[in-house]
Amino acid sequence: MIIRRDVFQAIADPTRRQIISRIAAEAMNLNAVAEAFDISRQAVSNHIKILTECGLVTIRRQGRERFCEAKLDQLTEVTDWVAESKKLWTGRFTALDNFLTEIQAKPTTDGTK
Question: Which residues form the HTH arsR-type domain (predicted)?
């Protein structure tokens, strides 16, 4: 069974977000990335693998070393989704606010507002 990983899955984990932040500033070799975290090198490798599968990280070989580079173009999928969700919820909250204002303005059965 093949698991399709997406950008949302990648950024859901705080360690992966930290890895992205670190290598977005500069490409780092795998050992440098692993040393920055208080988890096993295998765990860091697994996080890097997920980030690579999602297209957020590429591995570049330079001699005997492998360097991680951030490819943040994939994050546009997230920003697009956030923008659409914000538009949707802003509209819903505006409609709710209008509805509540309308209800509050109507007189009750005893003649008060």
Answer: 1-90
Pick the CATH number of 7-72 from 1.10.260.40, 3.30.360.10, 1.10.10.10, 3.40.640.10: 1.10.10.10
Per residue in 89-103, pLDDT (tens digit) is: 999 999 999 999 999
Positive/negative CA dihedral, 67, 71, 72, 77: negative
In whole angstroms, what is the distance from residue 83 CA to residue 92 CA?
Answer: 14
What mean pLDDT is predicted for residues 2-30? 89
- What is the domain partition of the chain in residue ranges? 7-72, 75-105
Instruction: Mention every residue, 6+ apart, whose C-beta is less than 8 A from residue 111.
Output: none
Angle at 109 between CA 107 and CA 110, to 5 degrees: 90
- From the list 5, 6, 36, the residue with the least C-alpha distance to 21 is 36
